[in-house]
Amino acid sequence: MHDIRAIRENPAEFDAQLARRGLSPLSPEILALDEARRTAIHAAETAKAEQNSASKQVGAAKAKGDEAEFERLRALVAEKKAEVAQMQTEASELDAKLRDLLMTVPNLPLADVPEGEDEEQNVEIKRWGNPRNFSFTPKEHYELPAVGTAMDFETAAKLSGSRFVVLKGGVARVHRALAQFMLDLHVDKHDLSENITPVLVRDEAMLGTGQLPKFAEDSYQTTNGWWLIPTAEVTLTNYASGEVMEESTLPQRMCAHTNCFRSEAGSAGKDTSGMLRQHQFEKVEMVTLCTPETAIDEHERMTGCAEAVLEALGLPYRRIVLCTGDMGFGAQKTYDLEVWLPGQNTYREISSVSTCGTFQARRMNGRYKPADGGKPEFIATLNGSGLAVGRCLIAVLENGQEEDGSVTLPAALHPYLGGKTRLVDGKLV
């Protein structure tokens, strides 16, 4: 959410930044609501002062025996009390309207984010590794003989419908090994603290990170009002909700491996084959809470943590900086990591790492107490995939495929697979 004072002080700049995201000016509507709200608050305060003044005079009039003045003042007190209640109600309603409007306005991009309308204007800034030259035509993950029946879409469809999968045997173990490997790397090498969090959260948690109110259709809600998390960004970031932390405790760098749930609203017909786009999937998520001054450095650090996973697995990738028109709702700046998938002969997103500045912290009132003893200030938040486990499985399978139909698995996973090095017909050998 946005600082209303900053909008008041420089509405033209606010609208200019919205324009970079392709949005029309909003400051006139925002400031009109703000002015009406402040007017109602002032009117309520004035009426309250008049009520208090009349209340003090009531007793004096009674003591003097001035019945007419007593009745006039008593009527005035009642009138002002009703006026105060009316103005407070009006101010409260206008405050809610202003808050609801601000809740739907996306974060403002940092100055170095490239201009653009959509993903076609994203900018590649780094490549690592060289795509393998195959002596045969590489297959997509769900076509691999090495996978066999261990990636079972038919049973999943019977159980749950489309865009679900049942993993079995060796494929299931490789998937589990990937998640364990990611967690160990982040905890042991990157100094992230591991967490196990709920996957069901309240409205407030989804509001805090920006999934609500604008993107409710992208998530699943239970009949008793809980939301299934789209990522552990929601739970980990909301650790800061309503808190005032000591600056000495920052940065807080965390990770969690969870199931994630997305309705994929608006993606009908996209990536329907295989397990690239699922309603239920697993991710190892990274979240950092820090001071605003350190957020840019933390963004680079977090991106490096995600890249280290790909490099340890020997998976070629590229880093993309998203343009203003393709960034997520809560982001100030986002790097996407795209892994090479030889079966599709292209790079596909496997991680998205964003710095959000104080945008989410304002929504959830997450603050820190400066070491110099000043007033509490809003923290900065960052989040990123480290990595999407299912997509990493796809990349491992496709990049490791051999002409005989087997898959050679990355050396980094061998200790997690009991020393097994290959996948053949759904089994580890």
Using brief descriptors, characterize the structure shown:
429 residues; alpha+beta; 8-stranded mixed sheet; 3-stranded antiparallel sheet; 11 helices; 38% helix
Overview in brief:
The chain is α+β, with helices and mostly antiparallel strands and 429 residues long. It has helices at 4-9, 11-20, 27-64, 67-103, 153-159, 169-188, 203-209, 233-237, 295-312, 359-364, 389-399; strands spanning 123-128, 151-152, 166-167, 193-195, 200-201, 220-221, 227-228, 244-246, 252-261, 280-290, 317-321, 333-341, 346-355, 367-369, 377-378, 380-388, 407-408, 422-424, 427-428. The protein is 38% helix and 21% strand.
Draw up the topology in text.
Elements: H1 4-9, H2 11-20, H3 27-64, H4 67-103, E1 123-128, E2 151-152, H5 153-159, E3 166-167, H6 169-188, E4 193-195, E5 200-201, H7 203-209, E6 220-221, E7 227-228, H8 233-237, E8 244-246, E9 252-261, E10 280-290, H9 295-312, E11 317-321, E12 333-341, E13 346-355, H10 359-364, E14 367-369, E15 377-378, E16 380-388, H11 389-399, E17 407-408, E18 422-424, E19 427-428
Parallel strand pairs: 4-9, 8-14
Antiparallel strand pairs: 1-11, 2-3, 5-7, 6-7, 9-10, 10-16, 11-12, 12-13, 13-16, 14-15, 17-18, 18-19
Helicity range: 25-40%
| Average pLDDT score | 94
Q: What is the percentage of strand-forming residues?
A: 15-25%
* Main sheet summary: 8 strands, mixed
How would you describe this structure to a colleague?
With 429 residues, the protein is α+β, with helices and mostly antiparallel strands. It is built from eleven helices and 19 strands. The strands form five sheets. The protein has an eight-stranded mixed β-sheet with strand order 1-11-12-13-16-10-9-4. The longest helix is centred in the first third of the chain and has 38 residues. The protein starts with a helix and ends with a strand. The relative contact order is 0.14. The mean pLDDT is 94.
